[in-house]
Amino acid sequence: MTKHSMLIIANWKSNFTRDQAEKWLSEFANQLKVPTALEKLISASIVIAPAFPHVQMVSDELVNNKILKSVSVGVQDISPFPAGSYTGAVSGQNLEGYHVKYAILGHSERRKYFHETNIEVAKKVEQCFDHDITPVICVDRGEIQNQADELDKDIFSKLVIAYEPVEHIGTGEGEDATQVAEVIAELADTYPEAKLIYGGSVNRGNVADYTGIENLQGFLVGTASLKAEEFVDVVTMSAQKGSDD
Ligand code: PGA
């Protein structure tokens, strides 16, 4: 992860059949045949985070397709335990060999529906580091300090922290850029040297509102990442900032 390039993560959540995921990847690669789009893509760090069953296919495609070589694969969770007798869990060891570079942790949907806690997120962070995976920790306003308290300060520089206001996720209405800027400033104080990104209804219509925010270095994109064409637009519009820096 280069410190200054924009990081744009497609969070597919629990969407897509295998066929749909394959179709998305071929549309994505086609969009990037336009040289200007490709140039911007290369100046950014792009991550696709599919559901676990699609990790292998996405990973193979990214490794084998020349155009997609600079794109990484991510996962949406990791077991808080190492390899062993933990039925149903996907451990860091299970992910070895699939070129997984990022893991989204503590997403509000996991905190809400799977009761994931700050302590559990901290355990998952350790598992990520044991397997060379960069943790992307999602926090809403109320979790900023509490989550930091569960983590060793020495690791902050190796983290990506995503500010994710729950009331703006999946609504199509991103949070007002001034408010996002305020929270990003708070995150910069609490997690010095972490890479800070924003997620919450980022799409091609609003991404430009956020790209000028100080210390903001990327986006976690849900709904708008489900259409390859729109995701490429989000990438090219946000990578503009990275290449202008
Ligand atoms: P959204 O999802 O873009 O659909 O709001 C973002 C997220 O949940 O990370």
Structure description:
The protein has 245 residues and is an alpha/beta fold. Helix content is 40%, strand content 17%. It is built from ten helices and eight strands. The chain has an eight-stranded parallel barrel, surrounded by five helices. The chain is globular. The structure holds 2-phosphoglycolic acid. 2-phosphoglycolic acid (PGA) binds next to strand 8.
Radius of gyration: 17 Å
- Structural class, by secondary structure, is alpha/beta
Give the proportion of residues in helices.
Answer: 25-40%
Low-confidence stretches: none
Q: Can you list the ligands bound to this structure?
A: 2-phosphoglycolic acid
The total count of strands amounts to 8
Q: Order of strands across the biggest sheet?
A: 1-2-3-4-5-6-7-8
Per the principal axes of the C-alpha atoms, what is the gross shape? globular
Based on the model shown, name its key terms.
alpha/beta, eight-stranded parallel beta barrel, 8 strands, about 15% strand, globular, binds 2-phosphoglycolic acid
